[in-house]
Fold each of these.
Amino acid sequence: MSSPFPSCPPPRPVEGECRPPEPDGLACSLTVPGAPYSAQIARGAVRAVLHTYRLDPLAPAAVQVTGELIAATWHLEPGRSLYLSVRYREDALRLSVYDGHAPHSHPRLAAHCEARRRAGLRVMAAVVRDCGGAWGFGESREPGGGTRTWATLPHAGAAGYLRCQGSDLP
Ligand SMILES: [Zn+2]
């Protein structure tokens, strides 16, 4: 007769057997408060995640984009949580921030709100462009609704981000 109790998992692997995970498996998410200091939390988290997956060369661009994404979205619904998703697929890092601010149904209000969001994302847009990536925002399909703002950074472009910044220096 089998035991009604679930068995323990196998013993933890010893330190030396712990290999770094494959970048393509990177799928991490984090919920932060809708507050100005959350940009710093998110930046630190993304840096740590990239380091674990040995994607450190992407960190300067990815950390800056993350900070800008949070900074541009938290004040649209202050106090409401922001959800950050970090994924790596097909040689590109995908960063998404879900905020609770739903698109407006009134066209003029919607246009005004979009323009405000775009203006807040100017610095992020410049970094993404320098990396040869793409970005955008739209209605979130998550159960909580709101808006999803996303940026995709190709590995080669993001890894060259600081090098290209450095070439501007005398
Ligand atoms: Zn609005």
Amino acid sequence: MTDQTRSAAAALSITSVFDSGNIVVEGIDGTTATLSIRKDNESDFFQWFHFRAAAPAGTALTLRITGLAASAYPDGWADYGACVSEDRETWRRATSSYDVNEAGGTLTVRYTLESDAAWFAYFAPYSLERHHDLVAQAGACDGVTLRQLGFSLDGRPIDCLELGTGAKPIWFIARQHPGESMAEWWMEGALDMLTDPGNVHARKLLAACRIYIVPNMNPDGSTRGHLRTNAAGVNLNREWHAPSAERSPEVLCVRDRMDETGVAFAMDVHGDEAIPAVFLAGFEGIPSIKDAQLASFRKYRDTLAVRTPDFQTRLGYPEARPGKANLSMATAQLAERYGAVAMTLEMPFKDNVDMPDPAQGWSPERSMQLARDCLATLAEMVEEI
Ligand SMILES: [Zn+2]
């Protein structure tokens, strides 16, 4: 090794050239890196980051992610800790602070390496390889069909797992917004429970329902390291009133399958950047709203709140006024089009402020457990849906 390569090896280096990677290196000075986040392709949205920092074990890193006042959700950075992992299995929170007045809004992350590299991300990533593992493993279970409903703009399959022998059509979809990786961790928890023959809640659901699960609505955005859009910069959760092969084939193929199956109950799984809580949003403003439909949604929500301290009803989005629902969004469109009990589940990027975990914040493990609680709650009241 020459002196030159030795000094190069000792320096801090940063890369994001991998699945769901996103970072721009503005400059590196010693152990301090100045960074920014790349916008979604053909879009102004940005918030998701995922990169690898390499330096000798013991190095105290200072990572400055700048320009965040212009990000999609600037309120997402206060009281937020960046996710970090050295083994890419356990994700913890690094000490982080946000200064709105520094370099257009800067999140400063401080972390001392225990080994020679660490991975940092907005939330614990869920890779496309893991997605393939998930659908392969679930699809191999008895009674489960893996159906490709169509293809994304970049040509990736839109996977749907179908299971259950009952008549009631139940849909779960996730990751319309690809940076909300907790939504696919939730799906892993859901599929793990539903394919466990020893789980009585699952058995009850599978006897009463035909369940359709789309673990990743937006594989192109996921692998491109997008926050909110597909390969063409389209926000899929604003396409449900008129999906098209040109802009949003991901939504079109799912909605076409829903037209074939009908929808009695639907949950669209997301993450929220700013609100430190888990909550549900409903369909209050749809034109055809029915009392029984709304009562079932509220009963589901309130029952879930009793079941798990990780869910609450105090924090959330304001309800749409009568007739003012946005029918381009999945929840409102599914409630209107099929009369479904439809809902949007939001999990935090930060933490559950009522039950904080300083080490991990909101995590893959809690996302998976929440899925089990959501399914068990549905099993409790499935006769009423
Ligand atoms: Zn979302």
